Each structure stands twice: as C-alpha cells, then as structure tokens.
Task: structure prediction
Amino acid sequence: MACVFEVSPFDGGWAVKLCDTGEVLFFETGGQAEREARRLAAAHPGGARVRVLDLRRALVGEWPAASVAPIAPARPLGTPA
Result:
C-alpha cells in the first residue's frame, strides 16, 4: 500500500501528516501545506499519495506522486475492458 501524506485544517492553519512517522508539519495556508505534501510525496521512495481534506474534513482531492503511474480513468459501464 502506498504511503499517504494527509493535508488537513488544524487550529487556524493547515497541517501535513507525514506517512512514515506520523509527525505533523504546520502551515499558515492550505496551499503551502499541499505544495509541501506534494513535494514530499514526489521524493518519497516507493511512491506516495497526497490526500487533501477541507474545513469539514471531507475529501476534496487525492493525487499520486509524480513517481507513481497515473491512475487510469474508470471506464463507463458496459464498455469492453
């Protein structure tokens, strides 16, 4: 299973939870947190993903790292594989 870096709101700012250690990095904005999470995921050996949660903690985005092959879009029902 790929390592997941999670970006989420935290006490007036934003946090990135590191997948390997559980450590948390803090940022003033969600954009700063997401950029750092993507940078860490791209540099992570063995591949990693970034998951972004909004203020309600609902999932708003999830991306594979640059080193991981992109996920193929789902085929519509009834189309041949």
Residues 65-73 have pLDDT under 50 and may be disordered. Strands lie at 3-10, 13-17, 24-27, 48-53, 59-64.
